[in-house]
Batch of 2 targets.
Target 1
Amino acid sequence: MKQSRSGKKQKFTIGMKKKLVVLFTLVLLAFVGLGVRLILITKNNGEEYEKQVLSQQQYDSTSLPFRRGEILDANNTILAYSEKVYNVVLDAKLLLRDDKYLEPTIKALVTHFDLDAGEIRSYLKDHPSSQYYVLAKKLPYDQISAFQELITPGSDSYDANIQGIWFESGYVRKYPNGSMACDVIGFTSSDNTGMYGLEEYYNDTLSGTMGREYGYLNEDSSLERTTIPATDGDNIVTTIDGNLQSIVEKHLKEFNDTYKNNARTGNGANNVGCIMMDIHTGDVLAMASYPNFDLNNPRDTQALIGMPAVDEKGNKVKGESIYDSGVYITEEMIENFSDEELYQNYNALWKNFCIADTYEPGSVAKPFTVATGLESGSITGNEVYNCTGVLEVGGWPIHCHNTYGDGYVSVERGIEISCNVAMMYIAQSIGNGTFTKFQKDFGFGLKTNIDLAGEARTEGLTYNAADMTSSDLATNSFGQGFNVDMIEMITGFCSLINGGYYYEPHVVKKIVSSSGATIKNIEPRVLRQTVSASTSEKIIQYCNQVVAGAEGTGKTARPAGYMIGGKTGTAQTLPRKNQQYVVSFMGYAPADNPQIAIYVVVDRPNTDYQPDAKYATRIVRAVLTEALPYLNYPMTEPLSDKEQQELMELRDQMVTTANIEEAAVEGQEGQEGQEGEEAEGEEGTEENQEAAAEEEQPAMDGPRSSIWETFERDPSTGYYIDPNTGAMIIPETGTVIGGDDLPDFDGDGPGSEGNADNTAEGNP
């Protein structure tokens, strides 16, 4: 029995023992080899591998934001700047590495930033490995400074148990004056990129270069950091005078407040724009339009209310009939806007009306027609024309604004009373080729290249000589049939009154580094000479009569204590007979030595009867009554009791009240001295001016046909009423409201393409 059991027992043979020894030896050798290799790695490459491992932790580089450059006005008042702000960032992984950090950190966050503790706990539970989560955004330093002390080693209030929180710095754009100069300045997007205006045009200048902070290990394998600082953007100093800008914007708003919801629901006009310019440099001193918007909150929907709504192409939505000037935005409409519709109407709000919208200029173009005739030798200025109220050209009866006729009209009087027929006769003398050539010389149909984003292209909105018919030439002579924008008109007009020099308009005069060093001065740039000095003097003489002359259409533009010159304009929009008008005044001051130009355009005033240039001239008068004393121009005209009271009231509204008071006193003293030197027996300034105006009229000038003055007046509007037709007549000009419609010429011509909503007919 024992032998059989022992025979079945497994034996550990010699062969098996040998195999086990070999296996053991191999494993031992492998461990020895691995050990040797590790020793060699540690000895030869240990530092390299250690750095590589450590560098893969949270020591990589981070970006450092740059500070966007400031925008300043001509007086170095800040219009736009960037304020440093901080995001509060949570590193959940770091916070949760030890339970003792959790409660102190959450308590500190709730105390200092008014955060919800429950939301923080919920996030930590759902994202325990997260290392970047923004708890609060764009906080100024004074809101994070106390918490910064808690996490800064060495500070008096340092708490080592507050972990996993750090601050990410950035900048936010600020506009300290709210909506002031919003069209000129523009604003920035969320990624600090300029949009519209100077912010967009000078984006590369205002933008700096991002910095970088790098983490690395030193020779002792300790973490070190090196910083390449960000390069801040350059500052730009503009030609805009903040005081003049404020004056302009105040009176544009007053106009809107006066006529808002007047004849229809909506703003005081579809658009109102004003530009002031130094005629000898091209410097834009002020540029504004209404409606405007708050640069700090450009997406405030309240700014849209009262504007005409636009479609996806930016064209105004048509009203119920041709007599409507648009569909005006209400709160109910905004609630039903899609995101796309809201954005396209924001774009209409944000664009700069003074450079982006085109329209037919109307009679403010008449000085250009006369200047063309004088400069080309087509007329001498001594011509006299007979205005019967209408002239047939190319088979079309084209009316003067005074449909009753102006009688015999000289060139000078043609500007003073704004006679269309006289302009048509002058244009016939000039001819197509010369007329269109000078239009280009004056800048019509060309971009001015002003340093603002969004200037309209008017190429194709004027005629070529080959395409111009005789009727086109006739209507172009008084500003109908071609389109311009405001900056084109005032830039060309400055060349008419400064001796003929066409300056490139600009808004920035200097670029300055963040350290204060001047990088570039932007000097005035003369592009060409449009007319001679003698022609320029003639145009000043003629335009002075528009304000000073007994029959001048622009008398209501004269500011208190000053004489200015200029030209009125009234333009009928397409379709003709729609009773929708663009009215304007282009002027300069002082009258005897022009230094500044001003241009005001009112697009479809919110009134029952729109074709009255006084809606523009009254704005000009209000602006210049404040602006000229501020600019220290001495008064030249006597002040009535009403004007003296007006100036005294302005003392309480302006920061430059001393200038107004001194100018008023100087004006009165100068007038008293002048009166003392004049011959005795004169019966007052107005009578003398009227007598002088009559003496200056050419002998063949006939009196204005004022038959309308025999008609009865409408007591509510002050307009005369034609007993035969019932038409309303503007007393100062004889303009029959709706009675001087031009033919549509079958809709042909550049004025009918693309900008039909803004095309218009020239009037006084």
Target 2
Amino acid sequence: MTSSTEKQTPGNTRTLVRIHSWEVHAIEHRCPVRISKGAARAAASPSAMSSVKAVLDLVEFDRLPLADAMQRWKRRAEPSPELARWAAHAVDQALSAMASLAAISSAEADVLVPVSREWARQRRSADGSVYEETVTGRRYEGAGIRELRILRPKVCKRSEARERSEAEGEAPDPEIAFAAGVLAGASEVLSNRWDAQRPYALSRFTAPIRIRIVEISCEDGGFHILFDGSREEALHLYRTGAANEVAALAAGEVYRPGSDCTKCSLLGACSAVPVVPGILGVSATPGRTPRQWSVTDGREHAKCPARTLFNRLRFPRDQAAEDSDEVRRGRDVHKWFETQHERVPRRKCRSGEVPDSPGQWAAEWAGTDGFQARLAIQMIGDHAVVCPMAGLPSDADVHSEQIVAVSDPEADALIVAKVDLLYHDGMGWTLRETKTSRSPHQGDLFGKHPQLALAVCLSAAGVLSDAGVRLRVELEELTGRGPVLTELDATSPVVLAAARAELAKLATPMFDGSDLHARPGSACGDCGFVRWCPSARKGPA
């Protein structure tokens, strides 16, 4: 077994490879095989950002007033009330940001006009292969300037760490470097941009003088200029910040299963995604498109079905509303372990290996009395007693925050799980989930931690098995009373039956054809989508 996230595959033989800038965003999660083979599947339903694009097209290219553009879009798309609310807000914020950008351009005597056709650049190799790159966003041109405006659903945050790393000469963001290079060498696409089998027909190339890339938030109307420079500077940024990463995508030599699989036409026939019919214990609803499912999806749906809709539409969510200090504590403890367990050579965590400045490390969730920070430090120290690195060779195969993907054709679903740790002890694989809480859980483990139910079912199905050795499943509980390590017997018929029952219980409501109407009430208290939900309870219960 190579790695459960990155399996090697024979080289790509396709004669047309097309890469979009959205595929370079979060490039480390993209699957090179899907991209190199052009195995993209069309989006099944509108999303938060596709609705914004549709309205802006009517404003910029049909020259409709905003109110008229919204009405026409609503007649065509028949959006849900939630999507309509989001689109009205997002378009207003985007236009506000664009007005500010227009004022800046006007002050610099630059007049930019929207460009309706896509931009792409194309290269042909000696063997006849065609390699194409395109950018996604709003396009503007004038006075020798090409400007790309990338719309984001969330607030744009240029973190101090990112700005400092760029200032110190570290690698730039591959998405921005890619977009800069494409703008520097692109022509307009004259042919059908949805045809993945034929190369683009492009207009005559005219070299721009200046390239500008701007990021716009559709949540608050903020914007950041991410790149502003000459054509030569843009091409240099591409060479140093994106060329190698993009070449690896185009080569198509690695499978990287994950959320991208639902966009792939190879799903069900991909050697990197095991097929386990019936693992969810549900049947697909006739007429529904393939969907992605996770334990988190099931738990969110159980709280309020509308959360499933909002998540599917990719609405921006209020993370602060969803997270308690306990949740933030657990997340930072997990991040600490991820760093420790990925060390090379591999070595056991020691009780003294804790954050140097606990108060600073836990500043966002320590509380006024610092209790949460002290508890977290205790948990990190206690972990050394049960650290799975103990006894493993220095070159052991270990993967923190690992993505595991499985296809269930009976549910017509892709199951995606991010497991805390996968490690190989020389005999077989072990999946370990780590949980933090004030005290050990007493009662039904699968009901409390459904991830364990999924892990047991994966083990029973032979997923991640090695030479006939079943996947082992462990639970590490770090509590105020000390660490507790439990190994679940995935071979026990009783344990397996309980695990299957829990999965079916969690998945059934999402697959039985039920509607996605909101259930306002107590669930609104920790919902990050309240802002977009017309039914949400806005005040205290």
